[in-house]
């Protein structure tokens, strides 16, 4: 656990079993609900910000959206609050894209696209960027590059929520996954994801290397999560105007 693993996850292999892949994607909905705490993160950092100007229309990009379970919740919660949000959910695996489109065909406000995360500037204007369990798929240098692209694209806020690398997280997920998430890649890839996760100082160094230490804050969120929150250019300008 002292050093990030470089071993790839099975589902990152384009030739992996498609049945097990999509079963894993479907299981993400339960896994995310249990461990990701995305409702708290998005309520505090996105929805509360939208409520500062509720008459506006907003655009979010969700990187590595998988089956779009998180964005489905966000869109429904935004409507419940009377807010106007459009979401572009992106992934690079065509099998996951097709699966997500079928699952979300009746959901208004959601556009599922096959797009590389490093091309999100093509989707501008973008108010918010969110990525859950995505950064750990990349090596340090690639995360630095991606942060730079995100920071130059997003207007309001960007949030990268990912796994804290620890023995506690590893042991906890081992027990949880063996009880509830069999017959998929969830057990092996979940454990490997934790080995590819981050220490707090590692994420701080990544933000510093991207030249974004002044625009980001990083904190722990139990159980086993690190959240990187970055400020977009529009909010920076607002802060400068009130300063």
Would you give an account of this structure?
The protein is of the alpha/beta class and 243 residues long. It has one domain: Vaccinia Virus protein VP39 (Rossmann fold). Helix content is 46%, strand content 21%. The chain contains nine helices and seven strands; from the N terminus they run ααβαβαββαβαααββα. It has a seven-stranded mixed sheet, sandwiched between helices. β6 and β7 form a beta hairpin. α2 crosses α3 (69-80) and α6 packs antiparallel against α7 (186-195). The longest helix is centred in the first third of the chain and has 19 residues, at 18-36. The N and C termini lie far apart (43 Å). The mean pLDDT is 95.
Report the sheet-strand fraction. Answer: 15-25%
Structural class determined from secondary elements: alpha/beta
Q: Which residues form runs of ≥5 with pLDDT under 50?
A: none
Mind telling me the CATH superfamily name? Vaccinia Virus protein VP39
Number of helices: 9
User: pLDDT average, as an integer?
Assistant: 95
- In CATH, the architecture is 3-Layer(aba) Sandwich
Task: Tell me, briefly, the overall form.
Answer: globular
Multimer state: single chain
The CATH class designation is Alpha Beta
What name does the CATH topology carry? Rossmann fold
Order of helices and strands: HHEHEHEEHEHHHEEH
């Amino acid at each position: 656990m002292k050093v990030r693993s470089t071993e790839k996850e099975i589902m990152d292999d384009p030739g992996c079993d498609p049945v097990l892949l999509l079963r894993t994607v479907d299981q993400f909905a339960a896994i995310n609900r249990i461990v990701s705490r995305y409702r708290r993160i998005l309520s505090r950092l996105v929805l509360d910000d939208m409520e500062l100007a509720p008459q506006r229309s907003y655009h979010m990009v969700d990187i590595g959206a998988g089956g779009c379970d998180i964005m489905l919740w966000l869109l429904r919660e935004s409507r419940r609050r009377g807010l106007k949000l459009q979401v572009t959910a992106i992934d690079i695996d065509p099998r996951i894209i097709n699966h997500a489109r079928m699952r979300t065909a009746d959901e208004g406000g959601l556009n599922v696209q096959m797009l590389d995360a490093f091309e999100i500037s093509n989707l501008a204007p973008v108010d918010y960027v969110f990525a859950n369990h995505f950064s750990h798929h990349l090596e340090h240098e690639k995360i630095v590059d991606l942060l730079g692209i995100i920071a130059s694209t997003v207007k309001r806020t960007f949030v990268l929520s990912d796994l804290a690398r620890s023995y506690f997280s590893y042991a906890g997920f081992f027990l949880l996954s063996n009880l509830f998430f069999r017959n998929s890649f969830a057990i092996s890839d979940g454990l490997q994801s934790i080995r590819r996760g981050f220490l707090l100082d590692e994420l701080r160094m990544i933000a510093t290397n991207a030249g974004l230490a002044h625009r980001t804050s990083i904190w722990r969120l139990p159980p086993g999560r690190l959240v990187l929150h970055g400020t977009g250019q529009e909010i920076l300008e607002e802060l400068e105007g009130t300063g």
